[in-house]
Amino acid sequence: MLLGKNFQILEKTVLAPHIFSMWIQAPDIARKFEPGQFLIVRLNEVGERIPLTIVDADVGGGRVLLLVQVVGRSTTEMSRLNAGDTILDVVGPLGLGIHVEKMSGKVVCVGGGIGIAPLYPKAKALKNAGNHIVSILGARTRDLLMLEQEMRSISDECIVCTDDGTYGRKALVTEPLREVLERGEEVSEVIAIGPPIMMKFVCRTTAPFPTKTWVSLNPIMIDGTGMCGGCRVTSNGNVRFACVDGPVFEGQGIDWDEMLSRLQTFSDQEQEAQNHICRVRNQ
Fold first, then answer.
1. Where does the chain have alpha helices with state H?
2. d(Cα 14, Cα 79) in Å, to the nearest integer?
3. What is the mean pLDDT of the chain?
4. Dihedral of CA 253/125/116/274: which sign?
5. How far is residue 84's CA from residue 209's CA, in Å, rounded to a whole number?
6. pLDDT per residue over 83-139, tens digit each?
7. pLDDT-based confidence at 46, cuts 50/70/90?
8. CA 90 and chain centroid, separation
9. 274 pLDDT exceeds 60?
10. pTM of this prediction?
11. Is a pLDDT exceeding 90 seen at residue 16?
């Protein structure tokens, strides 16, 4: 784990309304990064700590790529930063990297919305290990589909779905997933990353089939080192911390109802913070 100060933003790209990517200068993190890991940023001295998945790393350029969705006050403030600006604190890489090996059967990678961003480095690593990759990508609408070309470039088969039918199939990702599983071909693993409700129903879809299902969880997180306990999840009846035991877990063992409930814990406070105008900082 590496900690530093004043990381410069090298490049910023707006991908869709309220979604943007940033390359930040972080040579030590880029060198240590393993697919599946994340980092935590703090924008300024009074800012909260935000966990963000590392989408990609350029070791030669000493930089890492982040994808950010504006959902609260801190990500709103981050969206106002541009190339040349700096982020005060960056800690990482955190969490455990995924296990990568050549599987006997196909690997199905299911991504929903911004979850396609953390899915990409995992799928890329598995493809580089020699696996046959089937990607199923979903979004509410075409404008919210992330990293399609990047995922196609490392996929042997790529299926795209949108909820409204504006692009690809009009379907939820669970529909083509079930079709792939019912082909009778060997599927060694399913990896699903997206909204928690999507991952829950992916696990329900795969439950009758003899394949492992992995998910990457995004519970409430503060310190990222296992001390605060905020990111606890129940896995196979045991308490685990997503920051040090994950963020990737076997999906069938997750208590999804508990996790979905915990994600709403601070929704009122988040809305209050979003609406608050700090008169001290704006003087």
1. 27-32, 73-79, 116-128, 148-153, 174-181, 196-206, 242-245, 256-262, 267-275
2. 9
3. 89
4. positive
5. 50
6. 999 999 899 899 998 889 999 999 999 999 989 988 999 999 999 999 999 999 999
7. confident
8. 17
9. no
10. 0.85
11. no
Q: Which residue type sits at 48?
A: E
Contacts within 8 Å (CB) and 24+ apart, 166-175? 166/141, 166/142, 167/141, 167/142, 168/137, 172/138, 172/198, 172/201, 173/110, 173/111, 173/112, 173/136, 173/137, 173/138, 173/198, 173/202, 174/201, 174/202, 174/204, 174/205
Structure tokens at 266: 């601070």
**The one-letter amino acid at 37:** Q
Which amino acid, 212? Answer: K
pLDDT-based confidence at residue 228 (cuts at 50, 70, 90): confident
Residue indicated by tokens 């697919």: 35
Please state, in angstroms and rounded to a whole number, the distance separating the CA atoms of residues 89 and 42: 5
Q: Phi first, then psi: give them for residue 266, nearest 5 degrees.
A: -110, 25
Residue 270 confidence (pLDDT): 53
In the chain, the domains with their CATH numbers are 2-94 (2.40.30.10), 106-216 (3.40.50.80)
